[in-house]
Amino acid sequence: MDFSLTDKEQKLWERAKKFSLEHISPKASALEKRREFPKEIVQKAYEEGLMNLHIPEEAGGPGLSLLSETFVSEATGYGCAGIATSIMCNNLAFAPLVIGATIEQLKTYVKPLITGKEAKFGAFCLTERKAGSDAAAVATRAERDGDEYVITGTKCFATNGPQAELFTVFASTQPELKHKGLSVFMVPKSKNVKIGHIENKMGQLNSVQSEVIFEGARVPQECLVGKEGEGFKIAMQTLDMTRAGIAAIATGVAQRALDEAAKFANIRQQFGRPIGKFQGIGFKLADMGARTDAARHLTRYAAWLADQGMRNSKESSFAKFFASDAAMKNATQAVQIMGGYGYLEEYPVEKLMRDAKLLQIYEGTNEVQRLVASNAILKESVNLDTGFHVDYEGRDAPKM
Predict the structure, then answer these.
(1) Which residues, 6 or more positions from 371, have their beta carbon under 8 angstroms from its beta carbon?
(2) How distant is the alpha carbon of residue 381 from its chain centre?
(3) CB–CB of 275/268 below 8 Å?
(4) Listed range (32-36, 244-248, 366-370) with the worst mean pLDDT
């Protein structure tokens, strides 16, 4: 078992951390107040080769591993979870296409977006107002009309929706089949694709989520990804692949909260000594450090499994809910350690606390992640031999 990074991985990790410290951390708070898409920072990340990492080389991308993606996501998440989401959201938008589309489709629809001088974006369009965790409730329709599909419906919470040039849209081709009738399409920006309400959020103000309205948007048959009815399977495979990226952003937030709290605890004096020397604070810092390291290992392991072509539904769920819970807990503890200062906008930890909350919600709530993980555990236990054999059914509980 070797936990060391290759030279290439280490260089990417260091480059991403340097980028975050120079371009994200110093600017995040000021950008947040304007609630603008961080165009200049994202463009710089694109120029630095920190975007679109998972696109295959045949389609114009670098073809890097999911493990490599976690380095960039953690580093940028350390600087600002919202900006990290804006930078890394193409990973989610294009993941269904990497999974289900042909190389020819990727060359036609994705390559032009990732090889030009300017950063361009896709948007992942699955969620609707009445279809969140329940993907089978998707109401957006895709109806066949000759050699075209006509797509009608409204999606919500689409990250980078207003900036997107290509929309990855999950729509029902056979509504009577529920989730088995779900299909996925590549829908280029057009006059029949409109941006609706832009969400006003508590945190992650440096990313933009909006409604995307498809008013009879026509796409050729070649925009169907995979086959009709494969949309739900592709969606689940996509989330297995991308949960590690969210966990990595969360790990970055957890690490930042720990670093800010420890720095403050070293400087802040009470009763003649730094507050970090008091057990009440020191134990908090120790727990924050353990959570952060555990989140990092779970995240990288989940990504590594996917890179090996191994099933990682359980492990990616572990990583996502544990890391995002760790981010929220660490951010809350950082605010507590810093006391009144932690509650002020002039200091970074109040922003970490607001940003962390969304990590527990998007790309599958942590409750859903626990359902995915527990179902996998129950399935594994069916033929599990623990060495203790007893027929539990119909047997009285042992007397104590």
Answers:
(1) none
(2) 29
(3) yes
(4) 32-36
Instruction: Report the distance separating Cα 126 and Cα 135, nearest Å.
Output: 8
Catalytic residue among 14, 104, 363, 367: 363
**Segment 104-119, tens digit of pLDDT:** 999 999 999 999 999 9
Our count of domains for the chain comes to 1
The residue with tokens 């040039």 is 165
| Burial of residue 152, with CB atoms counted within 10 A of its CB: 0-12 exposed, 13-18 middle, 19 or more buried | middle
**Does 363 qualify as catalytic in the annotation?**
yes
| Sign of torsion over alpha carbons 100, 105, 109, 113 | positive
Domain interval for residue 331: 232-381
Beta carbons of 363 and 320 less than 8 angstroms apart: yes
Q: What average pLDDT does the segment 136-143 reach?
A: 93
List the CATH number of the domain containing 274: 1.20.140.10
246 is a domain residue: yes
275: left (phi over 0), alpha (psi -120 to 50) or beta: alpha
User: Which candidate, 101, 219, 84, 105, places its Cα nearest to that of 159?
Assistant: 84
Q: What per-residue confidence (pLDDT) applies to 386? A: 79
Residue 334, in any domain of the structure: yes
Cα–Cα distance between 105 and 97 in angstroms, integer? 8
Residue 235, judged by CB atoms within 10 A of its CB (0-12, 13-18, 19+), counts as buried
Q: How far is CA 76 from CA 63, 83, 252, 367, in A?
A: 20, 7, 7, 26
What are the residues whose beta carbons fall under 8 Å from the beta carbon of 175, sequence distance 6 or more? 141, 181
In a domain, 307, yes or no: yes
In a domain? residue 399: no
Cα gap 25→31, rounded to integer Å: 11
